[in-house]
């Protein structure tokens, strides 16, 4: 869900990367939702040719997805299929973090892989042929050597799930039938917990995504030539459960080597965000527990990473104590850790419940770790803006999770009863708290009580919007400073340039740090 | 009189709003700069990517067509001047405009597919990469990663020559092609105004 400042940030990003025209089309789609080509032309007041080029650029860079809504045939009319375009807010914001993605690959794989990923991030999507041509244009070596090197790098990136096949260009979305809609309404009414309904964006992305079997599959030329490549398909998916899918895939894979040359590949943002999520969880646990517990947690994450279906997984797949121990001793830090130490660390991790134990199998509670991190972040904002008293009150309400009356809050936080309503009112005005009035008819007169509460969902969205606002301000300042620098180019003042360089480095580093916080509230 | 009514309206509107001087970046209390961790590598990588996109075919500028731009009559002496060679690759050199990659309505125009025959320049022209403040930091980063990139400098120059040659693909055959662009009867500047259906005598 895109907040107001989130949209402004996204538009600012696209303007910096692709210019005003592309940004205008992007903003139109972000604010008005999915539109057809004609509607986009009408709203943006650009020419049809300009809008088409902008859409091509946005689709190439995975910021927009086209789709068709299946319309029911009525009264014998032919079914009309109008192509619509939806902006993918998450993918646009990921563009901020491309440098972090490159860092992850440089820590895990070699330079050739980093170079290839950089090409994919620069161009959005590339075929095998384009990647080879690009590599050839920068090298003096022979064609075959380069092609082999490129293929090797692609396979390494595929095995790590860092790159994937591009989605379908125009999937057809079926409208839910009346019975399905009624069933959903009944389920929503009976459910005690509010369940997030799949948004249109999520449905479009799911419909467009390639099948799991194809997603990370590269069929190489040599394997196709040899006996239809039945047993030697170079797939990153070699788990037993996938064997049936592979057999089915062989019948699907009627690709010749030439077809594989035109398949488009792109960076798999999901995997990078997963890596960053795990890293953030480990950083958070590090501040609370010792190295042993952190090593055990890291090992559990490594073991279960490939089984995570979506980024915002709440719990990891359960692992037994022995499999956790096996994974721990594989890593450098965990080589000398004993079995008993692992068990002790797991007990440590269960309070607060970072790890849930169930019949001798343990699973990580990601949701809990992320929630605690989010609470800490929100509390630190309250402390810096409103002071210690407000911080204590906010923490009390955040931990209690239900409505509390003003005087009770004053007693619990040792703040004077006169001051308490003022502080609470300030927090309420800035959307950090919810307030409810309660009127009770007492013995002689009507008494009014004010009740206060922290609503986590609303708070999260509000804090996120404020962070996007801060990010936008930083971007504008960075742009302003670089404009200053351009004017200084003609005047060689080394000291001034050094100062500007330091300023740009500081602002850039601040942007990256702020982005970590944004990911905590939006992506993790 | 009607003026009095208008004047009153303006006065009413003007009295309500106080004009404040616009400050682009108002002074606020900033956090401690030393508390921000140095993310040099990330900042440099970001800067590199941004530089690339600004010079890439994906950066769409509002192109003013040559016809509207030059009001001056094209002179014979202009033919000897070098033509403005396109500095960016064309978008259609890099996009894979097949039906399974993009919606049909976006690639319907047959001219787009023809233009993709030109060779794509993968390495940016050295002239387009403006000096930026991270030049010094980038050198440090490159030294750390290895000296492989120094070999690219020669490759970039040869690519630049190839690019210029391919842009001048409209060969000058001298007078033989002169009549292709020769407009005798049409007067560009008065065409829009001519709504008369009367026959020309």
Automatic annotation (TrEMBL), chain A:
GO cellular component term, pick one: RNA polymerase III complex
Annotated stretches, region: Disordered: 231-252
Annotated ranges, domain DNA-directed RNA polymerase III subunit RPC3 winged-helix: 379-444
Location within or outside the cell: Nucleus
Entry-linked InterPro entries: POLR3C_WHD, RNA_pol_III_RPC82-rel_HTH, RNA_pol_III_Rpc82_C, RPC3, WH-like_DNA-bd_sf
GO molecular function, one term: single-stranded DNA binding
RNA polymerase III Rpc82 C -terminal domain mapped to chain residues: 153-371
Keywords carried by this UniProt record: DNA-directed RNA polymerase, Nucleus, Transcription
Domain RNA polymerase III subunit RPC82-related helix-turn-helix: 9-68
A Pfam family annotated for this UniProt entry: HTH_9
GO biological process terms held by the UniProt record: DNA-templated transcription
Function: DNA-dependent RNA polymerase catalyzes the transcription of DNA into RNA using the four ribonucleoside triphosphates as substrates. Specific core component of RNA polymerase III which synthesizes small RNAs, such as 5S rRNA and tRNAs.
Assembly information from the UniProt record: Component of the RNA polymerase III (Pol III) complex consisting of 17 subunits.
Similarity comment: family membership: Belongs to the eukaryotic RPC3/POLR3C RNA polymerase subunit family.
Name of the protein described by the UniProt record: DNA-directed RNA polymerase III subunit RPC3
Protein species of origin: Hibiscus trionum (Flower of an hour)
From TrEMBL, chain B:
Primary location group: nucleus
Segments of skewed composition (Basic and acidic residues): 142-152
Localization: Nucleus
GO biological process: transcription by RNA polymerase III
Keyword tags: Nucleus
Segments of this protein annotated with the region Disordered: 142-201
UniProt biased composition (Acidic residues): 153-201
Pfam families assigned to the protein according to its UniProt record, in alphabetical order: RNA_pol_3_Rpc31
Record keyword Membrane present: no
Gene Ontology, cellular component aspect: RNA polymerase III complex
Similarity field: Belongs to the eukaryotic RPC7 RNA polymerase subunit family.
The name this protein goes by in its record: DNA-directed RNA polymerase III subunit
Species in which this protein is naturally found: Hibiscus trionum
């Amino acid at each position: 869900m895109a907040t107001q400042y989130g949209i402004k940030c996204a538009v600012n990003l696209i303007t910096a990367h692709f210019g005003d025209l592309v940004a205008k089309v992007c903003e139109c789609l972000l604010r008005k939702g999915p539109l057809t080509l004609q509607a986009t032309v009408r709203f943006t007041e650009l020419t049809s040719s300009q809008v088409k080029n902008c859409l091509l650029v946005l689709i190439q860079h995975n910021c927009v997805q086209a789709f068709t809504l299946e319309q029911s045939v009525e009264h014998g009319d032919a079914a009309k299929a109008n192509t619509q375009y939806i902006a993918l807010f998450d993918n646009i914001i990921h563009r901020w973090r491309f440098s972090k993605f490159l860092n992850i690959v440089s820590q895990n794989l070699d330079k050739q892989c980093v170079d290839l990923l950089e090409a994919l991030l620069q161009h959005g999507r590339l075929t095998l042929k384009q990647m080879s041509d690009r590599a050839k244009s920068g090298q003096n070596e022979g064609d075959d050597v380069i092609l082999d090197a490129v293929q090797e790098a692609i396979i390494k990136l595929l095995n790590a799930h860092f790159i994937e096949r591009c989605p379908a260009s125009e999937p057809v979305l079926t409208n839910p039938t009346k019975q399905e809609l009624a069933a959903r309404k009944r389920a929503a009414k009976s459910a005690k917990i509010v369940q997030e309904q799949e948004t249109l964006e999520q449905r479009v992305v799911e419909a467009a995504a390639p099948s799991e079997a194809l997603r990370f599959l590269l069929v190489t030329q040599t394997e196709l030539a040899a006996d239809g490549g039945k047993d030697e398909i170079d797939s990153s998916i070699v788990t037993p459960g996938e064997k049936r899918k592979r057999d089915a895939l062989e019948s699907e894979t009627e690709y010749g080597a030439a077809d594989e040359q035109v398949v488009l590949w792109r960076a798999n943002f999901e995997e990078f965000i997963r890596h960053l999520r795990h890293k953030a969880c480990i950083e958070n646990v590090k501040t609370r527990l010792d190295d042993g517990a952190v090593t055990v947690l890291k090992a559990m994450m490594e073991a279960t990473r490939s089984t995570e279906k979506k980024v915002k997984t709440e719990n990891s797949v359960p692992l037994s104590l022995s499999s956790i121990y096996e994974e721990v001793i594989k890593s450098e830090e965990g080589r000398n850790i004993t079995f008993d130490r692992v068990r002790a660390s797991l007990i440590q991790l269960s309070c607060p419940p970072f790890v849930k134990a169930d019949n001798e199998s343990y699973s990580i509670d990601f949701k809990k770790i992320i929630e605690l991190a989010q609470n800490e972040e929100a509390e630190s904002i309250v402390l810096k803006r409103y002071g210690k008293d407000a911080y204590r009150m906010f923490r009390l309400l955040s931990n209690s999770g239900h409505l509390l009356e003003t005087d009770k809050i004053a007693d619990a936080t040792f703040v004077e009863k006169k001051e308490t309503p003022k502080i609470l009112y300030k927090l309420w005005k800035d959307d950090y708290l919810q307030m409810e009035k309660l009127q009770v008819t007492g013995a002689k007169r009507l008494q009014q009580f004010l009740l206060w509460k922290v609503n986590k969902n609303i708070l999260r969205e509000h804090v996120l919007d404020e962070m996007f606002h801060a990010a936008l301000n930083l971007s504008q300042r960075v742009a302003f400073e670089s404009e200053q620098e351009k004017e200084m180019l003609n005047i060689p003042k080394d000291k001034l340039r050094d100062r500007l360089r330091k300023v740009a480095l500081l602002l850039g580093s601040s942007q990256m740090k702020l982005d970590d916080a944004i990911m905590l509230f939006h992506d993790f | 009189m009607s003026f009095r009514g208008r004047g009153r309206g303006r006065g009413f509107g003007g009295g309500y709003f106080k004009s404040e001087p616009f400050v682009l970046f108002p002074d606020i209390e900033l956090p401690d700069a030393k508390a921000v961790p140095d993310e040099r590598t990330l900042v440099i990588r970001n800067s590199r990517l941004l530089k690339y996109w600004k010079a890439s075919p994906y950066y769409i500028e509002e192109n003013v067509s040559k016809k509207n731009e030059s009001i001056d009559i094209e002179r014979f002496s202009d033919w000897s001047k070098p033509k403005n060679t396109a500095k960016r690759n064309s978008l259609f050199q890099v996009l894979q405009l097949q039906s399974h990659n993009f919606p049909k309505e976006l690639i319907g125009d047959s001219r787009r597919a023809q233009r993709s025959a030109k060779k794509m320049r993968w390495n940016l022209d050295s002239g387009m990469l403006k000096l930026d403040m991270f030049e010094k930091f980038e050198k440090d980063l490159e030294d750390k990663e290895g000296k492989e990139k120094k070999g690219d400098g020669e490759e970039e120059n040869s690519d630049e020559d190839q690019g210029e040659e391919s842009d001048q693909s409209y060969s000058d055959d001298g007078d033989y092609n002169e009549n292709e662009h020769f407009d005798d009867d049409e007067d560009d500047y008065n065409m829009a105004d001519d709504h008369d259906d009367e026959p020309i005598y």
